[in-house]
Amino acid sequence: MFKLPAAYFTGVRTKTLTDHTCMVTVKHSWVNQNPFKSMFWAVQGMAAELTTGALVMKKIRESGKKISMLVASNNATFSKKATGVITFTCNEGHKIEAAITKAIETGEGQTVWLNSNGVNEEGVQVSTFNFEWTLKVKS
Hints:
It is built from 3 helices and 6 strands, in the order H-E-E-H-E-E-H-E-E. It has 139 residues and is α+β, with helices and mostly antiparallel strands.
């Protein structure tokens, strides 16, 4: 809540964080809707980014090293109006582990693309986001 107040205020909530998966939900409401009565794209983006960023933070913490992280690029596709409860999931913890291992071994910065898919309560995909994270071991 204190680190991401806008996400908290708009209803973004982490439901699951494991070694390889992060799941976040957000419920469509008046406070997070666009003029078309569906969820504003930026709210979907906050939820999607949180699924990837929480996994990156978890893996950095587990490495025991000081590693900087930053989103360098992102893209998104929207396929259906986002109404009701939308669940965003990233299942790519293994990619983060590989990038962190390589960053530690080589001392060079690494990038990793992570995907987060948003589905509605019926299991229909409403959006998909991709984030390019940069990781660098601090000296």
